[in-house]
Give the backbone structure.
Amino acid sequence: MEKKRFLFVGNSHTYFNDMPELVRRMCVEIGFCEAEVCMQALPYATYGTHLEQETSLRFQMVYGNFDFLILQQAAHSPCPSGEETCCDARVLLRQARLNRIKPYQLLPWAEERFPEHQESLNSIYRRLADAEGIPLIPAGLVFERARVKKDLPSLYWQDGEHASPWGSYAVAATICSCLSGRSPVGLKPESLSYAKISKRPGQNQWGPHSFPLEADACRRLQKLVWECVTDRPL
């Protein structure tokens, strides 16, 4: 398989449960590519945060030889306005394209307690996608449809904002399917868990923490992801 390099730029919603590593594993398993993943993500980080700390991001884009850029904006209250999001995203997109990196915008999910916020998120990122010609990864749509279907384990962590291991699996599968054009149905039912259980920095054990998923429910989730990727009206 061809090697591809991925750069994830985001925040805690990006790094929860080691989601980029799930993408790497899925890309190999689905036969898309030998993926290499790197990540720049800080708690509460917005696109503006990454632009303010431009030195490391500039170095990654200029010298990292990345094929894909996956952008994830802070999207839960308080979060940047649609205007700020689009303005800062344009700068990131311009830099990516100057360095021949194909950018993708991840559609965020609304907080579990405020499902009505999803429509405003859809509107912001649809506008950005239309104006800048950037493909949307419909993770928010997957969360929304999973909530309505109610036959899947919760995609939300206990705070109702971050992704559970199920949610991170869903996001990773959505990214993998969007980039590869291949169905995630049949992927191994195994996620990762990196949910902090205290405010202490770091983890007691820094190795990967496997999180097995119930097979039938995982298959239903995979089908839902593929439905959202192939037919995603926003």
In short: The first strand starts at residue 3 and ends at 10. The chain is about 45% helix and 15% strand. The beta strands are 3-10, 34-41, 68-71, 102-106, 136-137, 190-192, 210-212.
